[in-house]
């Protein structure tokens, strides 16, 4: 909230969409005029009633996200069965509920999950209006793909979402529709370059050496970044980053079974395995495309070695564009 307000965004345009907030965060919102806050349970509602009674609440509902990479509904979101009770409690506590939010989670391959959640939101709107709440905000959440090669293209999702909005929240109904498009906008905007800081060759089975006269080897490379830093998507989104090399290997250059590891001294900091790479050296750089979402803005939790430096680049073609 502090950062957003620092760049000039008015408090009326800010929504604190996390339904699990510290009391200090709620008090900060109250002090700085941020009134839109999300909730999904009675405990969160009680915290807001006590610390920010003038807040305008957005009820976060659970979704069908079984096909998403991140199953956010395991931790966040009220079931449809509990929504009326929560809306009634808000009314009794004199807290205004002004809308509904949901989050499908990243990597969802089924656009119909958005359509179903929009239909569910319409039901919750009806409940709220029956109880006297003025409902005028629908937050579609985030997780929208930012890659051309995604299982479902953004345009396909947008088509399904727009059809559902036309059906349940048609233009002119007085509802403001929000969406969190961070991943869509920034995924392809950043390329990450990491350095090899150490390497180790591991000989395979000794019996094969006896049979062939050579000992097949795999190579373990240690990088200056790992899954507790810019490669956190390996943990949270089950991604398998594939690097580009500084120099393209020649056709006769041997390839070795290789794995990439981060700087943390523990067994989970594995960035990628099963890669076939030429012999690389300490100090070489590996480049990873499409690394704009949840990467450079995250702090290393373990084993971070240095501050990250961001370099801005623009192609000659882009420089020639006229605005």
UniProtKB/TrEMBL annotation:
Residue stretches making up the Orn/DAP/Arg decarboxylase 2 N-terminal domain: 1-186
Keyword vocabulary terms for this entry: Cell projection, Cytoplasm, Cytoplasmic vesicle, Golgi apparatus, Membrane, Nucleus, Transport, Ubl conjugation
Subcellular localization: Cell projection, Axon; Cell projection, Dendrite; Cytoplasm, Perinuclear region; Cytoplasmic granule
Ubl conjugation is among the record's keywords: yes
One Gene Ontology MF term: ornithine decarboxylase activator activity
Main location: other
InterPro entries: Ala_racemase/Decarboxylase_C, De-COase2_CS, De-COase2_N, Orn/DAP/Arg_de-COase, Orn_de-COase, PLP-binding_barrel
Family: Belongs to the Orn/Lys/Arg decarboxylase class-II family. ODC antizyme inhibitor subfamily.
Quaternary structure, from the entry: Monomer. Interacts with OAZ1, OAZ2 and OAZ3; this interaction disrupts the interaction between the antizyme and ODC1. Does not form a heterodimer with ODC1.
Function of the protein: Antizyme inhibitor (AZI) protein that positively regulates ornithine decarboxylase (ODC) activity and polyamine uptake. AZI is an enzymatically inactive ODC homolog that counteracts the negative effect of ODC antizymes (AZs) OAZ1, OAZ2 and OAZ3 on ODC activity by competing with ODC for antizyme-binding. Inhibits antizyme-dependent ODC degradation and releases ODC monomers from their inactive complex with antizymes, leading to formation of the catalytically active ODC homodimer and restoring polyamine production.
Protein name, UniProt field: Antizyme inhibitor 2
Lineage: Eukaryota, Metazoa, Chordata, Craniata, Vertebrata
């Amino acid at each position: 909230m502090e950062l957003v307000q620092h760049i000039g965004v008015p408090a009326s345009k800010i929504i604190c969409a996390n339904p699990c907030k510290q009391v200090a965060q709620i008090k900060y919102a109250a002090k700085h005029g941020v009134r839109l806050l999300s909730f999904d349970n009675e405990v969160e509602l009680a915290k807001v009633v006590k610390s920010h009674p003038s807040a305008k609440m957005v009820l976060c509902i659970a979704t069908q996200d079984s096909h998403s990479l991140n199953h956010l509904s395991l931790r966040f979101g009220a079931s449809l069965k509990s929504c009326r009770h929560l809306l009634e409690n808000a009314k009794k506590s004199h807290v205004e509920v002004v809308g509904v939010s949901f989050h499908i989670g990243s990597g969802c391959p089924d656009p119909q999950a958005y359509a179903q959640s929009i239909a569910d939101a319409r039901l919750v709107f009806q409940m709220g209006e029956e109880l006297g709440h003025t409902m005028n905000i629908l937050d579609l959440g985030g997780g929208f793909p930012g890659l051309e090669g995604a299982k479902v293209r953004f345009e396909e999702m947008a088509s399904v979402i727009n059809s559902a909005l036309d059906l349940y929240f048609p233009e002119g109904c007085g509802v403001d529709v929000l969406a969190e498009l961070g991943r869509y906008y920034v995924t392809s905007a950043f390329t990450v370059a990491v350095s090899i800081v150490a390497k180790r060759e591991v000989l395979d089975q000794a019996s094969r050496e006896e049979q062939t006269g050579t000992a097949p080897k795999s190579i373990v490379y240690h990088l200056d970044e790992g899954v507790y830093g810019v490669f956190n998507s390996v943990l949270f989104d089950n991604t398998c980053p594939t690097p580009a090399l500084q120099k393209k290997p020649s056709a006769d250059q041997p390839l070795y079974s290789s794995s990439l590891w981060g700087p943390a001294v523990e067994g989970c900091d594995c960035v990628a395995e099963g890669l076939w790479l030429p012999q690389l050296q300490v100090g070489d750089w590996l480049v990873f495309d499409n690394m704009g979402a949840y990467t450079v803005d995250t702090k290393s939790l373990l084993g971070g070695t240095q501050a990250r430096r961001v370099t801005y680049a623009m192609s000659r073609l882009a420089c020639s564009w006229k605005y």
